[in-house]
From TrEMBL:
InterPro entries: AAA+_ATPase (IPR003593), ABC2_TM (IPR013525), ABC_transporter-like_ATP-bd (IPR003439), ABC_transporter-like_CS (IPR017871), ABCG_dom (IPR043926), ABCG_transporters (IPR050352), P-loop_NTPase (IPR027417). It comes from the Eukaryota. The chain crosses the membrane at residues 463-484, 496-517, 538-564, 570-594, 601-623, 722-743. This is ABC transporter G family member 2. One of its GO terms (cellular component) is membrane. Belongs to the ABC transporter superfamily. ABCG family. Eye pigment precursor importer (TC 3.A.1.204) subfamily. GO terms for molecular function: ABC-type transporter activity; ATP binding; ATP hydrolysis activity. Signal peptide: none annotated. It is found in: Membrane. Residues 97-357 form the ABC transporter domain. The keyword Transport applies. It is a multi-pass membrane protein. PROSITE patterns: ABC_TRANSPORTER_1 (PS00211), ABC_TRANSPORTER_2 (PS50893).
Length: 749
């Protein structure tokens, strides 16, 4: 907690506010506590923290200066300038997010099988409609935190998803406006951020590295490297992560930061660009009370810096309740309370269910709601009472009009340094302009590649296991097929070697399935709010995979080519290496595409193994192309194994001067192969007389070209086979991109 504010004295008071203390000392925390009756203070945005940081000459000066600005109360001049402002300016809220009559329902198919009189079951299905949100309304103001509460299944996460544009527009009824104007999806992606309930982070990156990569994604290229580092350092202090900055995130197999620190890192990567609206789905889930309080305290700082913070929370503690500004209680999609926590006792008092004096207000409300849900009439009476109570409150207090237009409010925020990811300020016409992405695609590719390489470099066992599988397979093949001769048996052994070698290259690519599946939700979170383009991700992942594929292909080719005794010399080895590399490329691309379609690792492995088995079956090894039935010939041309297999066969047997069957060797694969050579020579003489050809023991009967014809390999040259294999790899990468484009919308239907 050394990075947070120190203890504060309650002697400072806000003028014109009944002399109420603005802050009071919390004995269990080193942080200032806001009085429930006080108005929210305006904290410096992250951009303002950096305005006085001149290229960060040294880390100590930068950190100290950022800390001083992060807490205006630590500087007397900052505090005096704030307290000298009129109360109306302090309490102004240029941004108001309003949502009215939000309704969302889903259709559920339920299967029932009633037994008939004859004992047979019916397979009829019934379609039921479940209402997840039913006319939910409310508003959230800049500088405040709104919490959505309720039991499990009450609709908390659904409401957050609706406000965060994570529900398809045609499925959600109602309106969502910002300062009275409809909030378009394209603008919302720029001005808002969404923090998922699960902490989706790269396990082998440190806290500082994770935030720095987020800064490189979300902050524009116009901001210097030093400014980005200074922003990250200020954010680390704001999140209270200074002691864990150099610690890796960790996972089940690697010790890392604590649960509360992970949650704050998850928040940090989404607020690096200082968004106007921040959505969080149960940020305190799974945390102890102290960690949960620290997370909400961080969110309070973010809200006070000029943001709207909206979160769902299951059951806040008494201390957390003291930090919240607005509450919405939901019960099975209906609003049963909305307003300030201060008015909660009055609400239930008027509902004839007063909250006992020493009772936790939140626990009492949730217990009462659950009790009503289990009753015969449900919460209908409470829902109707809330509507009447809200109408009365609105009449007594009057409507809180927002006189600041959305354009003016966004322009003012940009001037203060918010929305640094893609917003620019055009003060001449007060019209802010937005870039869809903060950086060009080539910058995104570099950052994605650098992050992936760094994360992989700290997990060398992944590449080591794949290299081990390739090398073990290569050594087994090299020792099994050592120095094959140019005999009919040698031909059959070569065919078997090539078929097994080519199929193995594809099977070893199956390890790529978990790679994207582990990153899937990180990718969806980052691309949902335009951290980078999907095309940048696909291109970057494709490029950074090539060096490892070259290394694997070279290792396999060097292990097997000369040991097996393949022909062609140096040029033959080069083509064999390129074919293995192209096979790795096509196989890796195919598996990557499947990982974008299949969301389960075990299912992915099953599908890959099955499809690759079919590819091998139709490759032409087990049955030549000429003998494949016409109704299956299309699968032969779709087989990924076909093209590298035919390519290496042509590389081996294309020499017309190389003979593989001579004279008496024609009897080797027949029952006559067991008779003495003298008998075979006599048979050759007899055959020569019948055929009119002089056949001796050294007469070449079958060349490599003849073998290719026997295998039905005559329609595509070896280089075309190579290019087709490479093209398959690019084709599956393009399919992977469209899979991400279509399947990663991360929206409910």
């Amino acid at each position: 907690m050394s990075g947070f504010l120190g203890k504060l004295s309650p002697t400072k008071r806000v003028p014109g506010n009944n002399d109420l203390p603005l802050f009071y000392v919390n004995q269990t925390s080193m942080e200032p506590q806001r009085s429930p009756r006080s108005t929210p203070r305006v904290s410096a945005t992250l951009a303002e923290l950096l305005m006085n940081v001149e290229d960060a000459r040294n880390d100590q000066t930068t950190t100290r200066r950022a800390l001083e600005m992060a807490s205006p109360l630590t500087s007397s001049s900052s505090f005096n300038s704030w307290t000298s402002a009129p109360a109306s300016s302090v309490s102004s809220s240029p941004f108001v997010l309003s949502f009215n009559d939000l309704t969302y329902s889903v259709k559920i198919r339920k299967k029932f099988e009633p037994l008939s009189y004859c004992g047979r079951a019916s397979n009829d299905t019934a379609v039921n409609t479940k209402i997840l949100l039913n006319g939910v309304s409310g508003e959230a103001h800049e500088g405040e935190m709104m919490a959505v509460l309720g039991a499990s299944g009450s609709g908390k996460s659904t409401l957050i998803d609706a406000l965060a544009n994570r529900i398809a527009k045609d499925s959600l009824r109602g309106s969502i406006t910002l300062n009275g104007e409809v909030l378009e999806s394209s603008m919302q992606k720029v001005i808002s951020a969404y923090v998922m309930q699960d902490d989706l982070l790269f396990p082998m990156l440190t806290v500082e590295e994770t935030l720095m990569f987020s800064a490189e994604f979300r902050l524009p290229r116009s901001l210097s490297k030093k400014k980005k580092k200074a922003r990250v350092q200020a954010l680390i202090d704001q999140l209270g992560l200074r002691s864990a900055a150099k610690t890796v995130i960790g996972d089940e197999g690697h010790r890392g930061v604590s649960g509360g620190e992970r949650r704050r890192v998850s928040i940090g990567i989404d607020i690096i660009h200082d968004p106007i609206i921040l959505f969080l789905d149960e940020p305190t889930s799974g945390l102890d009370s102290t960690s949960a309080y620290m997370v909400i305290k961080v969110l309070q700082r973010i809200a006070q810096s000029g943001s709207i913070v909206i979160m769902s929370i299951h059951q806040p503690s008494y201390r957390i309740m003291g930090l919240l500004d607005r509450l919405i209680f939901l019960s099975r999609g209906n609003t049963v309370y909305s307003g300030s926590p201060v008015h909660l006792p009055q609400f239930f008092q008027e509902f004839q269910h007063p909250i006992p004096e020493n009772e936790n207000k939140t626990e009492f409300a949730l217990d009462l709601i659950r009790e009503l849900e289990n009753s015969a009439e449900g919460t209908k009476a409470l829902v109707e009472f809330h509507k009447q109570w809200r109408a009365k409150q609105a009449y007594d207090n009057g409507n809180r009009n927002v006189n600041v237009s959305l354009k003016e409010a966004i322009t003012a925020s940009i001037s203060r340094g918010k929305l640094v990811s893609g917003a620019t300020n055009n003060s001449s016409n007060l019209k802010p302009s937005f870039q869809t992405f903060a950086n060009p695609f080539w910058i995104e590719m570099i950052v994605i590649g650098k992050r992936s390489i760094l994360n992989s470099r700290r997990q060398p066992e992944l590449l080591g296991m794949r290299l081990g599988a390739v090398m073990v397979t290569g050594i087994i093949l090299a020792t099994m097929f050592t120095k094959l001769d140019n005999s009919p048996k040698g031909v059959q052994e070569r065919l078997g070697f090539f078929a097994f070698a080519m199929s193995t290259t594809f099977y070893t690519c199956a390890e790529a399935i978990p790679v994207f599946l582990q990153e899937r939700y990180i990718f969806m979170r980052e691309t949902a709010y335009n951290a980078y383009r999907r095309s940048s991700y696909v291109l970057s992942q494709s490029i950074i995979s090539i060096p490892s594929l070259i290394f694997l292909a070279g290792s396999f080719a060097a292990t097997t080519f000369w040991a097996v005794g393949l022909g062609g010399g140096a040029s033959g080895f080069l083509f064999f290496f390129l074919t293995i590399l192209a096979s790795f490329w096509a196989g890796s691309s195919f598996v990557t595409f499947l990982s974008g379609v299949v969301s389960n690792v075990m299912l992915g492995f099953t599908v890959v193994v099955a499809i690759l088995a079919y590819f091998l079956l139709f490759s032409g090894f087990f049955i030549s192309r000429d003998r494949i039935p016409l109704y299956w010939i299309w699968f032969h041309y779709l087989s990924l194994v076909k093209y590298p297999y035919e390519g290496v066969l042509q590389n081996e047997f294309e020499d017309p001067t190389k003979c593989f069957v001579r004279g008496i060797q024609i009897f080797d694969n027949s029952p006559l192969g067991q008779v003495p050579n003298a008998v075979k020579l006599n048979l050759l003489k007899s055959m020569s007389g019948v055929l009119g050809i002089n056949m001796t023991a050294e007469t070449c009967v079958t060349t490599g070209i003849d073998i290719l014809k026997q295998q039905g390999i005559t329609d595509i040259s070896k280089w075309n086979c190579l290019w087709i294999t490479v093209a398959w790899g690019f084709f599956f990468r393009v399919l992977f991109y469209f899979t991400l484009l279509i399947g990663s919308k991360n929206k409910r239907r």
